[in-house]
Structure formats: structure tokens, C-alpha cells
Amino acid sequence: MPQETADRMDLDGGPGEQGRRGRGRPRGCGDCRDRLLEAASSVFIELGYERATLQDIVDRAGVSKGALYHYFDSKDRLFLELMRERLKATCAAGQALVAAAEPTKSREALLRELLQAMWANMQQPGMLELTRLMMTELPKFPEVGRAVFDEIVAPARETTRQIWDREGPATCGRHALIDTIVALLPSMMLGVTLTQHAFRDIDPAGTGTAQAGTVVVDLLLRGALASVEAVESGTMPRPKTSRQT
Question: Which residues contact 134 (CB under 8 A, 6 or more apart)?
């Protein structure tokens, strides 16, 4: 039996979805979901998404496949839930900032807080390894990549966009530039994080995480605000929209 088919089968031999119907919570496994996610993170990082199997994950977690299927109906869903669990902290932080912000709070102050939250989340244990996994594996599996983008990336961008729009609607050129800024800010910050991690024991000019975060947030924020101001003042060409390119 092909492994992918096996990964979608229940322990009693039926298709995963059919075998799960009517089942209650697995007995004696109150923390099964958390254990499965931790095991999946380790296995995916070690073997890659394509090589990893659900059997590898249940063996690492010390649970049955029946317990796994109670929470996740496929390897795709397990991977997506892992991404959501690990990345939702940044999304939630941004949404909370927007929801709790006083009407008089400036766009710049909110953006700074959001970027600081992004940086802090990228420094969490396991985040860099998970990010590398996303970079190498998601392009191979467009359906999973699309789900991650729709459920995690797009909402995070919308939250950032809401902060940019606090001080009035954007003109056409400004709108296109802000869309680009919103899309690029996390990637630029991630690039710094990855480089710091790769050369942390080699680079004589390396800085501590806290100091690097302060500098990176300031550079990104000031650069983004300056770009928007330049477009509005006419000293920088208005970027083309996707329909114009």
C-alpha cells in the first residue's frame, strides 16, 4: 500500500474520515494534540515534509494512529495546523494591537509595536527551523502552501494594512506602495534573523538579539514611512499596480 494511502487509513482499516466518525476523545491521552504537534515539528524538520510519514510522527509522539486521526485527517492538515499553531502568536498580537489601540495613537507607534512583536516571535525556540521548513517544502506542495497563505499570511497582512490606513485612505500610487511594504516587511525581518543565526558564532560584528531587534525595527519602520512620504510628495515615482505591470 502506498504510504500516502496508508497515512489516510485508520487503524481498523477503513478510510480515515469514515473511521473517525462518531469517535470520542482518545482515552488516556489528554495532551495528545500537543504531543502530536511537537512530534510533527521535530519529524518534519529532521526528514522534510515529503519524506516524513504519519507513522514517524505517531512513533515519536508515543500515541496510536487512531489518536492522530482523531485530531488530524491527513499529513497536509497536520502540517497546516502546525503552521497555524506556531505562527498564530504574531497574528494574534497584531490583531490585539489594532483592537486595543486608542484612536489617538499614531500609525508610527502602532507599526513599531507590531514590528517589535514580529521580531520577538521570530526569536522563539524552533521558529527559525520551522521557517526553513516552510521555505523548502511549501513550494513543492502548492495546496498546502495556499492554505498557509490564505489562513495565516493574508490575515496578518490585513492587520498591518489596517494600521497603515489609520491616518486616511491611500491614493492609488500610495495604495500600491503600501501593499508592497506590508508584504515585504516580515520577509526583510526574517532575512536578518536567518543571517544572524547562521553567523552568530563567526561574525565579529555580530550583535545581540535585543540590540539587533531595536535597529532592525527602526530601519524598517523609518524606511517604510520615508518611502510613503516620498511618493506623496512626488520625489519618488508612484509604483505600478499589479494590473499595470
Answer: 83, 148
